[in-house]
Design goal:
With 528 residues, the chain is mainly α. It has a single domain, classed as Sodium/glucose cotransporter, CATH 1.20.1730. Helices cover 73% and strands 2% of the residues. Strands 1-4 form a two-stranded antiparallel sheet. Strands 2-3 form a two-stranded antiparallel ribbon. Helix 9 packs across helix 13. The longest helix is centred in the middle third of the chain and has 49 residues. The protein starts with a helix and ends in a 6-residue tail after the last helix.
Amino acid sequence: MENPEIFVVMLLYMCAVVGIGVYFYKRAQRNSENYFLGGRSLGPWVAAMSAEASDMSGWLLMGLPGLAYWCGLADAFWTALGLAIGTYVNWLIVAKRLRNYSQVAGNSITIPDFFSNRFKEKKKIILGISAVFILIFFTVYASSCFVTVGKLFNTLFGFDYHVTLVIGALFVVAYTLIGGFLAESVSDFMQAIVMILALVAMIAVGVVNAGGFGAVIENAKGIDGFLSLNEIATPIVGENGAQLNAGNTPLFGKAGNYSFLNMISMLAWGLGYFGVPQVLLRFMAIRNSGEIKRSRIIATVWCVISLAAAVMIGIIGRALLPVDEALNTASKAESILIVMSTDYLPLIVAGLIMAGILAATISSSDSYLLIASSAVSVNLFKGIFKKDKADEKQVMWVSRIVLVAIALVGVIIAWKEDSVIFTLVSFAWAGFGATFGPLMLFSLFWKRTTRTGAIAGMLAGGISVFVWKLVLKEFLAASIPFFSLYELLPAFIISSIAIVIGSLLSKEPEKDVLDEFEQVKSGIVPEV
């Protein structure tokens, strides 16, 4: 085996993560609220850092650095800026009101629950639609995590990608079954600390080994468009997608234009935060709404530092490893942090960083599986098929079966070895942002929003993501640049318009719905 020291450190680290799951086992299994929402008991540090870690995970440590390494600063910078702004605004305007509203609206424990209870629907159409979309997009999200695990072990130890993919999925399912939401949140908190330390440490080591920060910048300046915010570097690749090189010099063509449309497209990533359940659930699970301000500061600072560090690692990586067979395609480039760590750090330290990538990826994927399984077991099975007559034992068993099924489909999606993590995540992110983001904002801040408007908005947003990505962008973007827009932005706008039109064309909400809205708006909400 290659790098046995790293393997041992990773094994010990994962034992600690499993220990967290075992510790919270009894508490998680008491009832579905404890299992899926942790009994609304998260403190400000755990809420903030687990929200960010569950969101970023392997994408932050592999996808974003790989993007910067492959084509330079523009794409990575504008994406990171959009995410940083979105993080702050989401914590600022959504967190407190959702925490209070989810409690007032039937003590909701899932996002579909909240939407359904918010509009007091008797026929659970909103519940069903939102549960189905969660199931679809979280399956894609989980597959991106499995790709990360496969690439990690393949790059580090030479293990077969497909074997480690399956083993990683089995581990995630087992861990999720044990600990539930609280274990996953606490382990995410630990992962957040490891992630930011790993990124900052790798920057320091990378700059020193590259000959100083000046040498890194000079190398980047030598690549046309690499450091530009309005141009993008274009690697010259062969038929197999691998970058060509001359000796120790990677070959790049003339920089491509990075238009205002591209910038807006990447900034639109920030809109996704209003609709991603793994973050919104942390808002609902905070033990006291008065602690949200502290959480907002913690989350924003962590996010800005981590995103900036991830982008810098990609830039530094081009100076350290300009030509490397392990990094010569867009997919392989996502292993830049792994290769830098094993080449330039003591193996034990590298092992800790690799363990952080693995654990962050696994804890994020178990978050995705947990939310998706709750959508089926709590919202579809109990809420619709059993009409709230299913007992806790039945709900928990359905949840376990669904976990296994989702993991299986996720493995199938991730089976292609050259899958790009960034691409998978961007599609799922757009799906959640457009399906739930506009509805979340309108539900919290516009009391005239109706059940009809909510249904129209979810369907319009979710369907638009598929149509824009798979039809309009695929067939029209080459001739009409407008259709190259990241699908989240147009789908978000379409969903918002559908909510407004659907609400204005339907009857005004009932008095009890309006009364609840005013109660939450006033801030008079009893704490759990």
